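Usage

Read records sequentially. Each one opens with the input sequence:
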Amino acid sequence: MIEIQYKDENMQKLDEALLLSAARAALEEQSAPQEAGLSVLITDDAQIQTLNREYRGFDKPTDVLSFEANERDPETGFLYLGDIAISLPRATEQAQKGECPLEAEVQLLIVHGILHLLGHDHAEAEEKAKMWAEQAKILARLGLSEINIQEL
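and closes with the structure output:
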C-alpha cells in the first residue's frame, strides 16, 4: 500500500494518480515485492528542516528525505519499506527553475526517495551514476525524460 499524506489540509493538493504512478513505476522497475508499502508526506520547509536536523544533522530544509524501515507486518507479512517526506515549497521552486510541472517534480522526488528506501545512494560517484541511471529509466517509463535530475 502506498499512502500519500499532507502536513495539513490547507496545502496545495497534487494529482494523486500521478504521484502513485511514480511510486508504482519505481517499485516495479526495482523489482520490489508487490505487497511492499510506503508512505509519502507532502510537507513544508519548516517540518522538513526539523526532520533533516534531527535525523541527518543538517539544520536546513531539503527537497526530499527517506526513512528506511524494511519491516514486515506480523499480521499480513507485507513489507513496509519506509517513509518519504517531500518539501512542497522546495519542489515548487525546483519545478519553476526546471520549467516543468509541479507534479512532474514531485514524481521525480518520489522516485528518488523510493530508490533510497531500496538501498540506493549517491554519496560516491559510482553510486550516483547507478542511481541516476535508475532514476532516468523510471522517469522515461513515466514519460518524464525531460526532468533535470542532475542535482538532487
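Summary fields computed downstream for this record:
- Residues 2-141 form a domain with the Collagenase (Catalytic Domain) fold (CATH 3.40.390.30).
- The chain has one domain: 2-141.
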